[in-house]
Amino acid sequence: MRHGFVDSGAGQLHYVEAGKGPPLLLIPHAGRSSRMYRDLIGELSSDFRVVSIDVPGTGASAPLPAGEHGIAEIADWLVEGLDALGLQSLDIFGLHGGNKLGGSIAGRHPSRVHKFVYAGQSHSIIPDKARRDEIFRKTPSIRSVIERADRPLPFWAGQFREMADIWWDEATLADLDDPAARRVAVERVLDGLQAFMDRPQFYRAAFAYDMKGDLALIRAPTLILELTTPKEDREVGRQGDALLGIIPNATLETLESPDVYAVTLEDRAAEVAGILRRFLLGE
């Protein structure tokens, strides 16, 4: 795996890449970095030139510039990074916060995207903005970031508690003999520290984003990968069928998980790689 930096309007962007073949961009989840794709990059590097760019304000990339910046502007900074890497046309996989950036690129820069994978848990892919905002405001981790962002002590305390919860999570403690499990916990905390200051701004951008409008503009063949859990089925409901009516050339696949932390699928890299190969390569 190779590391490097490219320039953008937001400052330098850190990226990792591996492999040779058709280019594939993996956009991380909000508040996470390319670290979350370490194993997935390894699984896919035999078939693709896999690139993952840390979004501004996360990982080793430059912080978000001062002021408010929308999803489209942040997505365009990623496009500038792709230009610097010589990637004019490629496949894109966007997960959770990354699906919004990927959807913005695919909708507004259609000539650049060969195929697009729009992935996320049901709450993350709700096409109706009012409904999505309602659900997001009920999500404790998002609500605490947004509501406490302008109150330094509660925000500071809330972020520390979130990272402590990762460190002392029962599942993590049960797997302390597993180096891979320890690595995932450490990397989640590292990503949390590096994205600490800019998470509120990204979430505000996500709240303001007209996701449905960009998705309707996508012309690339698109796989909707809906990550389902029993809890989300009860509280949110599945969204894939609604998206099929919005994205012109889309297919739907679901990936079921139990009611545990399953946002980034780091423990299912081989399974996710198989799904991507089937769709992107036609296997």
TrEMBL record:
Q: Which UniProt keywords apply?
A: Hydrolase
InterPro entries, A to Z: AB_hydrolase_1 (IPR000073), AB_hydrolase_fold (IPR029058), AB_hydrolase_sf (IPR050266)
An example of a Pfam family matching this protein is Abhydrolase_1
Keyword Hydrolase in the entry? The reply is yes
Q: Domain (AB hydrolase-1): give its ranges.
A: 22-122
A single GO molecular function, which one?
Answer: hydrolase activity
Identification of the protein by name: Alpha/beta hydrolase
